[in-house]
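Shipment paperwork, digital attachment
Item: protein structure file
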Amino acid sequence: MLEMTLMMDVSKETNVQFLRHSHKYLQEKVIELERTLAETRAKNQTDEELCARLSEDLLLLRKKFFKGGRETLKKQNPDKPRPKVNLPHNQCPVVAPEGQECELASEEVIHSLEASDADCDSCSEPMKKMESFEESCEIAVTERKYILRRHKREKFVCRQCNKLKTASGPQKLISGGKFSLDMAVQVAEAKFSHHTPLERQRKAMLQSGLRTDTKTLYRLTEYLAGHLDPAVILIRSQILSQRYVCLDETRAKILTGNSNGYVWCLSNNFGAYFQYELTRSGKVAREILSGYKGPLITDAYSGYLQFKEDPRIELFFCLSHLRRKFFDAIAGNPRAEEAVDLIDQIFILEHEAKDFSDVAMIRRDKSSKVVQKIDLWRKRQQGTYLKSSRFGEAIQYLNNHWTELTKFINNPFAPLDNNLVERILRDPVMGRKNFQGFRTINGADVAMTFYTIIRSCKLVRLDPGLYMRSMALAVMDGKKIQTPYDFARQLYGQTDKEALLIN
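Attachment content:
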């Protein structure tokens, strides 16, 4: 009908009714064609955006796989290298006295001449031994051995009343068990500090003559974790008593049932607390932070956005996450490098600080000006990018969370990023690579106890094995236990450091 109407010469048509129907029909067709055209244009635009995004992703993948994964720019300024200063937020609160650091054991081996070689090779006269030595060094290894130690407890009897008394035996982790406390500490440290699966440990033990099974080794770690659980509670309480905390999470499987879960980590430089949950819900974050008041540094995961409305918690977002988004966008849009340069300036300025008074001054006088430059830069970008591109997503991330990303200017105790907790989460991530996951929920809880203990010890430069053995013995004797920070401070005879403690 449309073709017939278009072919007709309506200039001489006098039938009003026909003209009215023809006009209505043509109007409907025009509207339909305009809608089809708009849909086609939208589809083409979507295809173009999709192609552009895929091209960006391909460039980014090529860069990560073939050019390394370091997030550094090509251009470096040799005239302004980053100062080699440890940020105050990352400084260890415990300083070991000189000589207390872990060192190699040493021994002297004196080599003398045989009786037949004690005469001079030239004149055959007896040679006199000198007071000096010709010295050299070598590093040797002592083979690990497992020993079956037989304990014989002497028995005594009273001649008057025939009452018996038996000498005390060694303290045992498991009553009636055949493995020592030191054995349990070694197994736990090997698995949760050095990421060696129990099956691999069992095979190594077999080569040394010890026959056991992985269930027995797991039972050792389970009993040891039960003795150390009170210390975990104290560690969490001490972390929450400081002037800032970082929070993050990572995936971890339960192998029985093949269910996914999450390892949550709460930390600052006084300790690390791990908790396993089957959900990534924000309710877990609220539970972990129960009773805490102060700055929280994390990423912009939706589960943390609830704390924007919490009057007790001041929410800060990580600048490293923001930088990473712009860094990944450089492949598709070179303008993203401008944002990376500005963010890097903030970190470089922060490395000039030696203490928190320096941090406060630098942020007030210098970093605030860089933040103003970033604000002007982001406003100039409006309307110049596709929202679906990586550059567009980075800009929207910056705009949506501007307050949480820049409020560090007014709080010197809040670090610029949550890289500390991300580094700490490498422990369960490395474990995940070696033993895939946890067999049961109970196994995951045991792992969280040891990750908490071991990482908290490492943060204050304390030997985890020494701490675990000492605290387990304290629990057996009914004595008071300590956190790794308090234990290290007492061990080194150090007074409390007030840099981060809230009075």
